[in-house]
Design goal:
Layout: H1 2-25, H2 35-53, H3 58-64, H4 78-87, H5 91-94, H6 114-126, H7 135-138, H8 143-155, H9 160-170
The chain binds heme C.
Length: 171
């Protein structure tokens, strides 16, 4: 009986070693785990998602980033001069008078309180208020830039007719 047990144990051990050895030399098929292919597919998918859901106005904004335009407001302080310059990046969506544009879903902001404008810009940049459309611009604005832009926007005529009249008077 003891001899039989020893014999069986040795046999089992032998078979085990044989099986483990073959397992080690089995060819591994990488096709199922092709990381490069998977990564590429993932990237393509992510790009497609961005194309569908991402902000569409970014290109147009880059074009008008440094446009020269006549100020609607009397630039009688250095802050308004600075704010007018920064607001050049906003008019593609919000309009020269801050009157807003339905096509961009950009609201009327001209004449809004400066502290409110500044707070919205600060919150958007910090991500406390989500605004994907404005993010590319906000990245380049310092807290002082936001203050200056807010000061300029707050001086814009709130009323559309008043804005048009002010534009006319400037000509
Ligand atoms: C690419 C278009 C685009 C540009 C450029 C842009 N905005 Fe906006 N802005 C929007 C949209 C869209 C909203 C509405 C966001 C929402 O629905 O919350 C908005 C909202 C705002 C608001 C909030 C208004 C409110 O009543 O709460 C402020 C303030 C504002 N923008 C200021 C600016 C300023 C200042 C600039 C330039 C530095 C600027 N925006 C540039 C598209 C734009």
């Amino acid at each position: 009986m003891t001899r039989l047990t020893v014999f069986l144990s040795v046999l089992t051990g032998f078979v085990l070693i044989l099986v483990l050895n073959t397992y080690k030399t089995l060819p591994v098929s990488n096709e199922k785990f092709d990381l490069v292919k998977t990564e590429k597919a993932y990237k393509e998918h992510a790009e497609k998602v961005l194309e569908v859901t991402g902000p569409k106005e970014v290109e147009a904004v880059a074009e008008v980033a440094d446009v020269e335009y006549a100020p609607v407001v009397d630039l009688n302080t250095p802050q308004l001069v600075a704010g007018h310059k920064i607001f050049g990046q906003c008019i593609a969506c919000h309009g020269k008078g801050g009157e807003g544009k339905a096509s961009q879903k950009a609201p009327h902001i001209g004449g809004q309180y400066d502290w409110y404008i500044e707070k919205q810009l600060t919150d958007m940049k910090a991500g406390a208020r989500i605004n994907a459309a404005m993010m590319p611009i906000l990245k380049g604005l310092s807290p002082q830039d936001m203050k200056d832009a807010a000061a300029y926007v707050s001086q814009l005529p709130w009323n559309k007719e008043a804005y048009l009249a002010a534009l006319k008077a400037k000509k």
